[in-house]
# Entry
Amino acid sequence: MPARPRTRSAKTTLSLDAIVAATLALVDELGCEAVSMRRVSQAVQTGPASLYVYVPDRGALMALAHDLAVADVRLPTEADGDWRARLELLVDRAVTALAAHNDIATVGMTGALPGPHILRITEELLRLLRSGGISDAACAWAADLIGQYIASSALEEAMWSRARRSQERPGGSSAEAEEAFAGRLDALYRSLPAERYPTIRALTPLLTGGDGATRAAWKLRVLIDGLLAGA
Amino acid sequence: MPARPRTRSAKTTLSLDAIVAATLALVDELGCEAVSMRRVSQAVQTGPASLYVYVPDRGALMALAHDLAVADVRLPTEADGDWRARLELLVDRAVTALAAHNDIATVGMTGALPGPHILRITEELLRLLRSGGISDAACAWAADLIGQYIASSALEEAMWSRARRSQERPGGSSAEAEEAFAGRLDALYRSLPAERYPTIRALTPLLTGGDGATRAAWKLRVLIDGLLAGA
DNA sequence: GGATTGAACGAACAGTGTTCGTCTACGGCA
DNA sequence: TGCCGTAGACGAACACTGTTCGTTCAATCC
# Structure
């Protein structure tokens, strides 16, 4: 005697796209760590076991969400300037796309294989570098370096904007002053003894201050300058 | 009537140092994700609840292990050359120290606050940059950039050497060909259609090949070149 | 010797990823 | 129209996870 007959809901049928989209939406609001197979399955109105029809495991699902996050990144065109301007634009778009989805960049740094959209961006990255007259070996390593830069910058920017988000709620829900990374880091620096950490103390306002976009643009410029200096 | 009287073992008493050391050792052999409070507690011969006397939560424990990983990094001296040589040496030592402990660099990228040893390295990093005549604002952002570089390079190198480790066992325990990141990535690149990804295909041997240390040194040189080009 | 206190711990809670075997609804075929 | 095969969906379970609560112990202080 089964508990109750399996009533197939008249809702939209399950699909990989719907699952991945739901996963990314959950990442947006909860962060990667808090996204569980159960929560995803609830979001698409089914049970956890059903997800495994479409996805081998949680890691693969996160990788798909990661790839979806950069799906809308448009490749620069000739109208956007020379190879360097286009390269900077492409990288900036990738960072922005990733940072718009919370934690998701962590997936790219834990050894997930690149999906089709990331490959598309990588291909264009390499093409632009090569068209800039950089040697093949340097192109390969530069792409690696820029990939590292994109992921870590996206993460940093995401934390910065997460801090801003939690600051805009002026104490509504949380009396416990849920101050996010930037604030805690600044407080830590300020609490350091000046005799042991003189340089950190001297530069504290500069270390945590500054607009995220400006920092990112500066870092990327440094990186490309370095590439050109070596060529 | 308690089940059995609490027999305090005559072993070494619990201590924070022992717990953190055990944690780092477990990270070394299992990776960060697989290190649980229960496994750590087993390693120090106690129960999971006992750890919370010394540590507020798992994240803090991992942060302590992360800091311990760079505890032995020695700061370069005047005998090591000018500021640039010393900077490169310091960064290299930090990367090597982190990469020697598997995954642990991930902790530094998920928003953990820096511990004392990381602060010590950061202080010296800033000092060296400043002594190189770089402006204060550039020093602050450069330290950030170099920090990102250290973490991501350590992660990459750790995966590279994990691949090597699993390759050195010539099929002993695993018939399922547990080929790690580098190999899978290379296979992926080789399987791409050449008409859609011509540049990736053209550069495939260069993308996955190369010695880890050489790559790291090259990338760091590019970075510092870029810093100097902007000054 | 008795009270105090911090450390250690057993048990439990709510939640996790994943697997197994069952069931059901829909496709094609007669 | 009736049937069946199969791919998809799912309930239940397993072996875990991080963390908390309340209790018990051993050592210290008065």
